[in-house]
Each structure stands twice: as C-alpha cells, then as structure tokens.
Amino acid sequence: MDQTKIALALKVNKQANLWAEKMAQILPDYAINNNLRLVHFLAQICHESNYCQELSENLNYSSLALLKIWPKYFNDDLANKYGRNNQHPANQQAIANIAYANRLGNGNQASNEGYKYRGRGLIQITGKANYTELSKHLFGDSQLLENPDLLITNQEISIKSACWFWQKNKLNTLADQENIIAITKTINGGQNGLEQRKQILQELEKIFAVNACVVDENYKFSLPNEN
User: Fold this and answer.
1) Where are the alpha helices (DSSP H) in the chain?
2) How far is CA 81 from CA 2, 27, 147, in A?
3) Given this model, what pLDDT does residue 186 score?
4) Which of 39, 94, 96, 129 has a CA-to-CA distance to 118 between 20 and 30 Å?
5) DSSP three-state, residue 221
6) What is the distance between the alpha carbons of residues 46 and 52, in angstroms, rounded to a whole number?
7) Helix 128-139 and helix 155-168, axial crossing angle in degrees, nearest 10
8) 71-93 residue pLDDT tens
C-alpha cells in the first residue's frame, strides 16, 4: 500500500504523513487491500472528517437546518429553541440528545447518551450500540463507552473504527461494484454530501490511477463517457 499516495490524498491535513503511515499498516487487515477499495474508503472518510481534521460531529446547526435535516425530531419551537439563530448559538448537546434519543442503542433525552455517543472518528461512529460493538472489537470489553473520546485523541483507534464500520457493513463489496451511492447511504443514512464525495473520489482515482466506472441513481453501471 502506497503511503506516499495516501498522504497526497490527505493534502489539506498537516498531519497527513502520520495518518498515512498508520493507514498503510491498518487498512490491509480489513481487506482494504487494492486501489479501488482504497479510493472509495478514502473518499468517504475525507468527506466525513474533512480530510482527518474534524473527528467529532459538528452539531452547530441553524434553526432552519434542524427543520430540514431532522424534521422528525424538531418542530418549529424546538428548532428555534436549540438551533443557531440571531438570538443564541446552537445548543449542540441538546440537539444531539433530541436527535439521537431512544435509538441507536441510546437512552432517552435525560440520559445524555445522544450527546455522549455522538459521531466521532474518521467515519463518525454514532450511537451507544455502535460504540458498544466497536469497543468489543477493539478491546474485548466496554472501555470505549467510558472513554468515547478515544476516537478523537487516538489516531490508530480512529482509523480502526472506520475500518470496522466498513467491514461490518460489507462496503468492500460495494466499492468493488463502484457503488458510491449505496456506500454513502450506508454511512450517512441518505445522500448528504454525495456530490462532494463523488468529486473527492474522482480526484483520488487520478492519484491512484484507478480507471473507474460510475453508477447512476438506479445503480446501473455505465462507462464514464456514456453519461
């Protein structure tokens, strides 16, 4: 695995060489072991973490954004109360506790587990259930539940968390199929940021000399010149 090219892919990150060194060691253990799988993996984590620079979920949403992104969990009153507007900054802790309460293995809003187990790491592991499963994978116990910030402070754990999620959800198979839409839906739950992810992927394909096919919205394969 070409560490130099991985560092080049993380071009805006001042610590790119440190990340690249660890990725080159860790990724093959999760069968991210060819350039096609690698460019899809890197495209997703570069989008999710802003090229390994932002390892904690940004919940600094405006009131309007909360209504657009989470209409199921925020009505006008809640969005205006907790979202960023002219009267006050966003209450990110309250936003997480409302959005993630009673799902993803979390307790109710009062448990604070929505915020405690908000998205962290290169691929934004979210929810107590995922933290519990990941902790067992990494340590064989529940220590990550007590120290979830390890996904932020420890590069190796942050990389392994993304690899674990990738492997758990069989994303190598989708990468082999060049199915960036399905990969994005698995990671994001929708298609948020899909165009940026595609743009990053195209840049990475040039770096790693991957001659890729593309997938349309119906997951049908076509050669690049046919779109």
Assistant:
1) 3-9, 16-26, 35-49, 63-69, 76-82, 92-99, 113-116, 128-139, 143-146, 150-153, 155-168, 171-176, 180-188, 194-207
2) 49, 43, 30
3) 95
4) 39
5) strand
6) 6
7) 110
8) 999 999 999 999 999 999 999 99
CA dist 153 and 144 (Å) reads: 12
**Residues 172 and 37: beta-carbon distance below 8 Å:** yes
Q: Is the dihedral of CA 132, 134, 138, 144 positive or negative?
A: negative
The packing angle between helices 194-207 and 180-188, to 10°, is: 130
Give the C-alpha separation, 128 to 130, whole Å.
Answer: 5
Q: What angle do CA 126, 127, 129 make, to 5 degrees?
A: 125
Q: What is residue 215's DSSP assignment?
A: E
What is the C-alpha to C-alpha distance for residues 81 and 63, in angstroms, rounded to an integer?
8
Task: Report the candidate in 208, 152, 138 with the shortest Cα–Cα distance to residue 175.
Answer: 208
Q: What letter represents residue 221's amino acid?
A: F
How far apart CA 92 and CA 96 sit, in angstroms, is 6
- Let me know: does 11 contact 28? Beta carbons within 8 Å: no
Chain centre distance of CA 130? 13
Q: Confirm if 60 and 92 have CB atoms less than 8 A apart.
A: yes
**Nearest-angstrom CA–CA distance, 114 and 92:** 11
36-74 pLDDT, tens digit per residue, is 999 999 999 999 999 999 999 999 999 999 999 999 999
